[in-house]
Amino acid sequence: MNQRVSLSGQVALVTGASRGIGLAIARRLGEMGAHISLCARSKEKLEEAAVGLRTAGIEALAFPADVTREDQISSIVRNTQQQLGPIDILVNNAGIGVFGPFHEQTVASWDAVLETNLKSVFLVSRAVAPKMIRRKTGHIINISSLAGKSTFAGGAIYCASKWGLLGLSGCMAEDLRAHGIRVSVICPGTVNTEFSPHTGKDASKMLQPEDVAHAVAALVTQAPGSFISEVQIRPAQKP
After folding, report:
1. Which superfamily, per CATH, for 11-233?
2. CB 3.0 to 4.6 Å from 64: which of 4, 43, 79, 126, for a disulfide?
3. Residues marked as catalytic
4. Which parts of the chain register pLDDT below 70?
5. Tell me, what's the pLDDT at 237?
6. Where do runs of H (alpha helix) occur along the chain?
7. What share of the chain is helix, strand, coil (3-state, %, to 5)?
């Protein structure tokens, strides 16, 4: 990563930013000088996150919203652009997981996971892309998972959403690269967050949210002549 590159004056929109990976990414980009637009469903947790960032000297605004709702996405993007400026960096991080044998899952669970993990990326990216195209610059970074590269028992719905996200990300990259917009996808292994239980695993050996944030920082500080399409992150030791 080019440590000399500053993001001063740039605007970053991060979804799923109230805690865990999303908050770590927001903090890292803010420390690099970006103005941060935080998005998540919980108004209370999101504002708490924003206050923490502002206390650290980072300009951050909180916009509670459900990123599966097209009308609410339009409001987030509009308010971000009005209050902070054009969006230079979009990090699609919002995600949920439902686990268990596929034949025991409900249609409601399928819809909830696919809409949050996959449809929301389509909706938010589609809302942000037109202005990026007009400005001929921008980064869109989608947070997927190694579950999008492999399968495991009980992971059918989650894996389906993440495999789909890899396909969507690749096509987005091809559609937007001619416009100066770089689309990348990050696939972490198990990260030490509240996202899902990690029974029997050593948390100290797991990936940390800051590891994913570091990868995002690397992607947005690339030289202009290339882009990294996919990053896979694994812990140094199996937890």
Report:
1. NAD(P)-binding Rossmann-like Domain (3.40.50.720)
2. 43
3. 158
4. 1-4, 196-200
5. 87
6. 20-31, 43-55, 70-83, 107-114, 120-135, 156-176, 209-219
7. 45, 15, 35
Chain segment 60-101, per-residue pLDDT in tens: 999 999 999 999 999 999 999 999 999 999 999 999 999 999
pLDDT at residue 85 in the model:
97
Residue 213: closest CA among 43, 54, 1: 1
Look at residue 201 in the predicted model and tell me its pLDDT.
78
* Of 20, 26, 81, residue with least CA distance to 53: 26
Sheet order of strands, 138-143 included: 60-64, 35-40, 11-15, 89-92, 138-143, 181-188, 230-233
Q: What is the pTM of this model?
A: 0.95
CA dist 141 and 11 (Å) reads 14
